[in-house]
């Protein structure tokens, strides 16, 4: 990844971290906790956020200028996921990862 | 997929078809042809388009309302990929799949 | 995909169909139904099966001889997913897609 | 990811690192270098390895016991990719990431 700018390398790392956090918390925490954690709206958003982060990391790893489009979409979805995880509660790691990724993606999309 | 609207099912199919066409043509046609077909800008766009189509299909399969963001990004990337495949030439199947997917995604993003 | 053998094209289609069926039923049916449908073991297996089908389709679309490894893994995971969906019940579309994909992948792995 | 074993967390990191290294080197190094670096066999193996690493990380993040199947496939594909990158030359980062990932996946598959 050393041919990519430092800012882009940092955004790739935020995206992969947010992907890993959302997916592992959905599967390892939400499915075990049940209740509000598996309400369809919340759970789908977690999985959608994981996928969008993964795709944005992929376009940046490719070095494709089209990462601007995916990062813009990713920033918005991460923002919504952070809000929803805060609403549900007991999802601090996810809130933090989504916020950091949203900020980084917003900068990359500009 | 029967709980999803017919329009969304059709867009999922366009996205998966465009994903499969871009990836298999990049690997099976462009790598064999060489020359302009493996110029970095073109080849990266093919792989970026494949990934974005895959991600948009994923969000629609999840039934996530956030597919609007991914479909907007996908419509734009497919449009650029169709144009670039037309420029390079001998990529008709890819041009057609990208155009159809761009149109379908644009409607889903609205 | 026309440069790929007919058998491989058919297996790619089975994998993409099984991916789409598992993911959309997990999100659109299991999350709505609740109860046994969101027990962690079952839900994780649905998502794992979707991912493995997606990856196997990807390797075949690339025309990579390494699809033998991914198809062998995919055949086994689809077999387990079909069994578990039968146990939980009311998942006929998933059982059928997993069985067909398992059989097709087993043949491609040989 | 804190509910997963330390060994599994380490393997997830190796898989994501190998995915990122293979994909970014294929796109940022091989496409620029041309020649042997874009010979179909080599380039497809790089992309296949990236995808299989991504899928194995995914199954481990889900906490799915089926990661045994994907890690077994991944270990074998990473071994082949390391060898092929060594043959082509000037791919040290990829050789190292593939070797480390193969070893880690082999242990997780056992």
Automatic annotation (TrEMBL), chains A, B, C, D:
It comes from the Bacteria. InterPro entries: Csp_YhjQ, YHJQ-like. Coiled coil: none annotated. Signal peptide: none annotated. It holds the Pfam family Csp. PANTHER family: CYTOPLASMIC PROTEIN, CYTOPLASMIC PROTEIN-RELATED. This is Four-helix bundle copper-binding protein.
